[in-house]
Each structure stands twice: as structure tokens, then as C-alpha cells.
Amino acid sequence: MITTINGTPGDDFIQGTPGDDLIFGNDGDDQINGNGGNDTLLGGAGNDQINGGSGMDIIEGNDGDDQLNGNGGNDHLFGGDGNNQINGSSGNEVLAVPGESLGNNQLNGNGGNDIINGGNGDDVLNGGSQADTIVSNNGDDLLNGNGGNDVLASLGGNNTLTGSSDSEIFNVGDGDDIIFANGGDDTISSGQGLDQVFLGTGAAEVFLSTGDGYDTIYNFDLSQAKFELESGLDFGSLDFSDTSQGVEIFSDDDLLAVVVGVQASQIDNPNFFI
Asked: Model-level pTM greater than 0.85?
């Protein structure tokens, strides 16, 4: 049996039951505690604090600057328009704000294999120690894997993506991005823009394509790291030019990458694959 609780248009303090609840905060700056059970907690307009419990909860902040806390279970936590802080817990959770939201949000997965989706504002998206999928929309965002075999992706904006010692997939779109791989056998596709890529230990693979701007790549370990070339390119179609910074890699007159601290004589066919 589901217990339904309705708040008022004002500021409410609402306690759920130990069972399954459906709670409407409605307008006002509400505090809602789901407690036990598999609850659906809907904040409504206003600056709400909504706390789930030990069950599998659905929590929606709606409009306003909300704080949403999962507190246990495999929860789904959704912010609305506003500047939200959304905190997962040890479960496998979904944390998200609308893609069109212009708020500056912070989403913290904390634990479990989480899906974390930001909006169009300047968001901070933090994974936890497990395998997370973290996706930012437009905006200048910070994406932090924090451990586990994560996927970190950005669709636009000038973003900073930070991995860990585990193996990650980095996939970024438009914008001038900074990628800190840190370690592991990472796969990096930097997309369009003038990107900076800092590799760590591990057998990293960096994708190169024409017409996407160029990457400046640091810590390229010639004994482990490789470049993946887009279809239509091969080692014989590339040109190399030494500079004081490192080697520049061209396809015709299109600069694909600058590899810092490496000279053309050190790069050979085994460093590339299609």
C-alpha cells in the first residue's frame, strides 16, 4: 500500500512513513524525508531539501535551488531549473538535470555504478569509486571520474575532464577541452576544438581526425601509447615537423596534433593504427 502525502503552498516539513510513500511538496521551500520504503518524492517549485531513505526512491526537485540526497538504494534523482546539489549514495543511481537547464549544478555519484547527466550550465559532475557514465551538455563543466572504469563525455563547452588510475573512455565534442587521463589504458577522442590532453601511465589510445582542430598531447609514452587514425588516413599520409615544443603531425596542411617532448625521428608506424 502506498501512502500519499500532500504539502501546502507554503514551506513544509514532511516526514514519510516506513513504507512506500508518494509525497508532493507543492510550492514553498520544503524539507521532505522519505524514510524507509520505495518512495516517490516530488518537491514542486521552491528551494527544497529532499532526503530519500533505504529503499529505491524517485526524487524530483522541480524548479528552484534544490538539494537532493539519495541516502541508500538504487535511486533516481532529477533536478529541475535552478542551481542544484544532487548527492547519490552507495547504490547504482541516475542523477540528472534537464539538458536545457542553465543552472550551475553539482552532481555527486559517491558510490555504485552511476549515470550522471548535466545540463547547459556550468556543472560539476563527480563520479565515485565504481564504473560511472558521466555526460555533460553545453556549458563549461568539470567532470571527475574519481575511480572505476568510467565513461566521461561532453557534448559542448570548454570542459575539464579528469580520470583516475583506472581505464577510462573520454569522448568530447565541440570546445577547447582539457583532459587529464592520469592512468590506466584510456581511450581518448577529443572532438573539435583546441584540446589539451595529459596522458598518464598505461597504454592510452588517442583518436586523430581531420577538420577537428588539433590536440596538444603531453606525456606520450612511445613504448605504450598509440594514435588511432580515422578511416582514410594511414601512416604514409602523415607529415611530421619538429618544433621547440615537440613534433607536429599533419595530414596535408591540416594540423592534427602537437606531441610535446617527442621528435619526428622517434615516431614510427607502430605508434599508429586504424
From this structure: yes
